[in-house]
Backbone:
């Protein structure tokens, strides 16, 4: 609960409500708690750019600029330099909890975590043997799945990759436009749906950015784009802005969206402006970043993702004498999330291995794939260690979840009704 001290007090009850939906939802919101747990233990000196919150929901399908469907890490709010195994532990523990939620036995949960750990070890060794450019350009897309993963997956598993991908539900700019806007007498505006979506003109709490301050963020952000993208961005006109509540772990931080229009009303464009704070990795390790939090997020995403958002950038703003840091990206970039609840055991194994391959590729881009591969070795000792950790941290999460639920019953925290 102590993380709530740095969050918006008016949204804390919603944050806790979402975390208490089930143990897996709680896990999604406990990144700092887990980082603190990991920092208290023994970590390797093998540090790379890590996601910092590599649970199974933070991997998604995207449309690349060329229109290909690409699977990659999705969330970089906590991305920082840290021990590679923190990401692997975060992933395998989330898979164990997902398996538990699906009603699987302990042995099945262990098998799912073990398969992901095995895939990470094999994949990082594969990338260690590739030349630097091959690692940098490696992607997991629908068309190239057999080429990229054929050395590790059986043909049956490769077919299952396509089955998992087929279960994704996508969102794009047009769908967001239809859902989030309304045509008023003075033109297109963002709809009101409190507390999840509130236009800035209707926010009475002065703690949020004003429309003018948000425009200053966008103006500064635009200078962090490459020159060609600055030309493209200049062709859009801002129409409206709002505060938006997103995710589980992010609830309580500032998040805004801005509606833009390009050629005409049939050319909509949304940007998401998210507050960036000190990463859970740096907080747990007692470190201070050399760059602003917004820049940290953007640079982490650019390093770990094969095809980062075209409009990814950042800006810092002084508000009442204090600096606030933000990063900016498209609200939806033809993104699709996997419906975990529709997966059976074998499909969850496949999905976990896809995530592990993706994570290994992201880590290898930092240039330390060979050292990580050497540390993990050729035997399955590390795989079993990760699987054992997954089950142990599953139990730790269940205990913490019960503690949060008890805090609700005792009246120490309140929930959104």
Residues:
């Amino acid at each position: 609960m102590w993380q709530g001290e740095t969050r918006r007090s008016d949204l804390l009850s919603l944050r806790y409500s979402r975390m208490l939906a089930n143990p897996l939802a709680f896990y999604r919101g406990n990144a700092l708690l887990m980082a603190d747990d990991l920092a208290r233990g023994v970590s390797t000196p093998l540090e790379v750019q890590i996601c910092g919150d590599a649970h199974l929901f933070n991997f998604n399908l995207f449309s690349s600029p060329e229109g290909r469907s690409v699977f990659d890490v999705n969330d970089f709010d906590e991305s920082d330099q840290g021990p590679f195994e923190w990401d692997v532990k975060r992933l395998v523990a989330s898979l164990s909890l997902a398996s538990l939620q699906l009603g699987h036995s302990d042995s099945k949960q262990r098998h799912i975590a073990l398969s992901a750990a095995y895939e990470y070890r094999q994949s990082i060794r594969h990338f260690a043997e590739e030349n630097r450019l091959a690692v940098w350009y490696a992607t997991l897309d629908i068309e190239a799945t057999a080429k990229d993963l054929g050395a590790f997956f059986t043909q049956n598993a490769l077919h299952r990759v396509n089955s998992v991908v087929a279960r994704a539900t996508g969102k794009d700019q047009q769908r967001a436009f239809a859902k989030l806007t309304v045509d008023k007498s003075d033109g297109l505006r963002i709809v009101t749906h409190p507390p999840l979506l509130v236009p800035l003109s209707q926010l009475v709490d002065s703690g949020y950015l004003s429309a003018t301050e948000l425009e200053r963020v966008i103006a500064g952000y635009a200078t962090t784009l490459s020159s060609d993208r600055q030309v493209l961005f200049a062709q859009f006109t801002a129409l409206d802005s709002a505060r938006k509540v997103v995710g589980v772990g992010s609830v309580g931080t500032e998040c805004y969206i801005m509606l833009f229009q390009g050629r005409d009303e049939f050319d909509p464009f949304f940007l998401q402006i998210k507050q960036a704070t000190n990463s859970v990795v740096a907080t747990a390790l007692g470190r201070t970043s050399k760059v602003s939090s917004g820049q940290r997020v953007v640079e982490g995403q650019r390093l770990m993702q094969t095809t980062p958002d075209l409009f990814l950038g950042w800006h810092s703003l002084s508000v009442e004498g204090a600096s606030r840091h933000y990063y900016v990206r498209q609200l939806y970039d033809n993104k699709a999330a996997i419906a975990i609840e529709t997966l059976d055991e074998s499909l969850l194994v496949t999905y976990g291995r896809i995530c592990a391959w993706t994570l290994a590729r992201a880590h290898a881009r930092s240039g330390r794939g060979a050292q990580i591969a050497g540390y993990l070795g050729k035997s399955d000792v590390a795989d079993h260690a990760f699987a054992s950790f997954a089950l142990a941290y599953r139990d730790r999460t269940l205990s913490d979840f019960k503690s949060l639920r008890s805090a609700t019953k005792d009246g120490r925290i309140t929930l959104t009704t």
In short: The chain is about 45% helix and 20% strand. The chain has two domains: 2-169+338-409, 171-330. The two ends are 19 Å apart (CA to CA).
